[in-house]
Amino acid sequence: MAETEQAQATAEMTDDATTEVQDTELEQVEQGVIPAEEENLDILLDINMPIIVNMGRTTIPFRDLLQMGPGSVLQLDKAVGQPAEIFVQDIRFATGDIVVVDGCFAVRIKEILGKEELEEQQRNEELD
Questions:
Q1: What is the domain range of residue 112?
Q2: Taking the model in full, what pTM does it have?
């Protein structure tokens, strides 16, 4: 009896359906770079990107964090002179040295990571 009810319900759904299904053929394209027109590239060149400079990291118990106040010091895992990591959109793309310019911290780019380093970084993130 359940099979009869299921068949009847399926028949009712089919009668109510007004959606028409059609097959289509998609154009085959080859992978590659399509040259952008210069005016389109100008739009992209004006986009601002947030940059994060990481000078070091540390891990402390929450209890110690709650006890901190003005004047407290957090020791980071990097020694003086080690390069800072520069991130764009959470992707490390360069390293640099922390400097002071007109009384403000700044970073002098030391090395821009190549394609191999970026791919290795992505592989390591996928493993984590």
A1: 81-128
A2: 0.57
